[in-house]
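Lecture 7 notes. Example A: sequence first, then its structure tokens.
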Amino acid sequence: MKKLIFLSLTAVTLSSCNPIIKKLYGIKKPDIENRELITKKANKFGLDTTNIVSVSSADFPYIMKRVSVPNASIFDAQGKYVEYRLTDTSCNKGLFDFIPNLNLITTYNKPDSLSLQQQWPKYRDLNGNKLSLPEPADFYVLIYWNVWTGKLNRDHVKIWEDLARANKNCRVKVIKVNLDIQDYWEQEEKEKWRKAFRKR
């Protein structure tokens, strides 16, 4: 339900007839972003800038079909996906309780459909370079975010990151996956996605 509300809110605020709501949430139309702009926005929202990755243009459609923003995916030390939602229709609200309670004792629901090893090659640094595997951890929390959702980054992404950092039950590694249109992409891909987003 919260996801539906967010999508509706996004659709409404991106329209020209609601400039007040758009300004209030700091939501803007998606645009092409680069390392400098993404880092600047991350600093504005109080986010750690050392753990931000992006998505290659080839894999961007795959990721966008499977995640909403802001949201997160959780993986265990072996790279197995950990399902935090109680049902397929549950919203991201569950992350506020799930992240601080991650531990090495609880038995988690781990569907076999997704692994960190499968996902990792899709990610790049903010200059478009391939990444080394992340350092060992008990859990990996991949938080999906973008610049244009404005205040939601402070209300969700920063809180989730802080909750993971404060978790003393285990080692939690946060990786923030930026889902903006990246300046390092091929020109044709950049323009294609900018036009697609601005039609919404």
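Example B, a different protein, same format:
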Amino acid sequence: MTIIGITGTIGAGKGTLVEYLKQKAHFQHFSVRDFLTKEILRRHLPVNRDTMTNIANELRATHSSSYIIDQLYNQAVKQGDNAVIESIRTPGEVVSLRQKNNFFLFAIDADPAIRYQRIVARASETDQVDYQTFIANEAREMQTTDPNKQNLQQCIAMADFYFDNNGTREALEQQLQVTLQSILQ
């Protein structure tokens, strides 16, 4: 069983990597967003980026910095198939997954203007923001000294494989295909 964790900036293409892994490599998908959405709805709170961030930080502070990812990893183990866990946001999550066998961390990034265009196009409930809010949200998630809060900068630095997604979908898929060939042998 291979586990791939995906980290990256907002709108960089984490979902595109996941779709490829599901469709072309038959990985099972485990989503932090879905996990948090269920918890938010259970609490009758609005589903938006601020609520997701607050609930995620609360769960990590209450349980452990890797709590959410550990829950998803346990679900993946029960499935028994290759799995992709989206989206790794704290170094503690990376450390926890590194203690498991056959784990690889993928990081993805692209130019902020390109990423903003992508989130506007996908129009999810967490993406309905202006450009300044988009940049502010990302800055809030990029680094911190609190182990229970998002630290994308450090997670990206911890990645085994880095994907530049400033080009076409085909170019990204080609990068991913080469990487998968090297780790799934």
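Note on Example B: Residues 41 and 47 are 7 Å apart (CA to CA). The mean pLDDT is 93.
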